Amino acid sequence: MSFFHQLRHALSDPPPEYLLEISEAGIAMARSSAPGQTSFYALEPGVLTVSPLKDNVAQPEELARAVATLAPPNGKKRRRAALILPDFCTRLTVLDFDSFPGDAAEQLSLVRFRVKKSVPFDVESAVISFAAQPAAPNSKRRDVVVVVAALEIVAKYEAALRAAALHPGLVTVSTLAALNLVPNTGGAPLVAAKLTGRVLTVSALHHNVLRMVRCVELPEVTPNEVFGILQPTIAYMEDELEQRPERVLLCGFGEPDSTMRSDWKAELDVEIEAVHSRFGIAGQNNAGLLGYMQSWKES
After folding, report:
1. What's the rounded Cα separation, in Å, for the pair 208 and 182?
2. Which of 81, 86, 87, 134 could connect to 50 by a Cys-Cys bridge, CB 3.0–4.6 Å?
3. What is the DSSP letter of 75?
4. How far apart are CA 239 and CA 19, in angstroms?
5. CA–CA separation, 273 vs 271, rounded Å?
6. Does any domain span residue 165?
7. How far apart are CA 91 and CA 178, in angstroms?
8. What is the CATH number of the domain that holds 136?
9. Mind listing the pLDDT tens digit for each residue in 251-260?
10. Residue 281 belongs to some domain of the structure
């Protein structure tokens, strides 16, 4: 996948020294000098409560202490870092445009206008990041990946890094980083489902382009609740693309055994596979980290 690969190359070389992925469960960390080695600091319940609507960091001192434990400050020198946030603290969507201007200011204005009525906070003071994906041959239509977050929410996460003398030069969300783990399908449609706690993020891809993404908090994590999100996604792909996805890639569900594969295939009529990286199976709290490390290794 290309989204995070392109974002990473927007940074000057060398890559940031530290990479941190934050979730309610804890912080996963790796260093660019040793991308195969990761650390995890478990957070006590209540330190973070992930939400797109309110302050996530209930105990900022504890979050800062966790970051400093993983990346101890070295005097006053600031180290460059990439910060991967939970999907659910943002609004993540794909907007389609019949045509998309080349001017960056015009692009931002269009994106802001489209998302203004769909987010429950002031868009004018929000953090907005977007990336226009490649257009299909002989088409002006552009699918644009958009991430919107309340400025106050992002600032509290960044503050924990700054307190440890880390400079978060790049901030993104877990799913966009994890898309680096999606294998090349030769253009065949597929669905990726990423679970973190009770938050499920489902992505629909075709020709290596993200066509739809949906992030929801489940009342409970059961097969029926997950199927209730996956089935409409598969139906959307059949209606919009006139093709049924060949497989569903699972992340955060563990390695599916034969019973799980059989049950899910019977329910969804697609093959079920787990998302892997060269560093191991992607879990609930490190998929973005592994996806970013995948791009490190490929460069």
Report:
1. 9
2. 86
3. T
4. 39
5. 7
6. yes
7. 17
8. 3.30.1490
9. 999 888 888 8
10. no
Residue 213 is part of which domain span? 185-274
Query: In terms of domains, do 220 and 102 share one?
Result: no
Residues 132 and 240 in one domain: no
Q: Positive or negative CA dihedral for 87, 182, 213, 192? A: negative
Mean pLDDT over 22-35 rounds to 93
pTM of the model: 0.92
* 64 in the same domain as 161: yes
Same domain, 170 and 250: no
Alpha helices in the chain (DSSP H): 3-9, 60-70, 104-115, 151-162, 174-178, 223-241, 258-268, 287-298
Question: What is the identity of the amino acid at 283?
Answer: G
Q: How far apart are CA 19 and CA 32, in angstroms?
A: 8
Same domain (yes/no): 50, 166: yes
Distance CA 261, CA 186 (A): 23
Residue-wise pLDDT for 120-149, tens only, equals 888 888 999 999 998 866 777 899 999 999
